[in-house]
Amino acid sequence: MSNKKRNIGVISFISLIIGITSIAIYLTGDTLIDDNVTMLSSFIFLIIALIFSLLSRRNIFGRISLYVSAILLGIFVLFFVGISLFWTTP
After folding, report:
1. What's the structural domain count of the chain?
2. In whole angstroms, how large is the CA radius of gyration of the chain?
3. What is the largest CA-CA distance in the chain?
4. Which of 10, 17, 23, 67 sits most deeply, having the most CB atoms within 10 A of its CB?
5. What is the mean pLDDT of the chain?
6. Domain boundaries, position 55
C-alpha cells in the first residue's frame, strides 16, 4: 500500500475523532460551546472523514472511518428527520 493512501486513512481517522468529540461536546448541552457550532462542526468533520475514508478503503484506519462515519451520519439524518416531523411550534 502506498504511503499516500495510508496518510489519507490517518487523516480520515483523525477527522472522525474530531467529529465524535464535537458530538460529545454537543451532548453536554450548551455549556462549553454553542450547540449550533458543535453540531455544524461535527457534521462537517464526519463528511470529511467519510470522503477521505472512501479514498483509502484498503487501509485499516480508512475502513474504521468508513463504517463509523457512515453510521453516525445515518443517525444524524434520522435525528433531524425525527425532529422536523415531530416538532410542534405554534
Report:
1. 1
2. 15
3. 57
4. 23
5. 85
6. 3-86
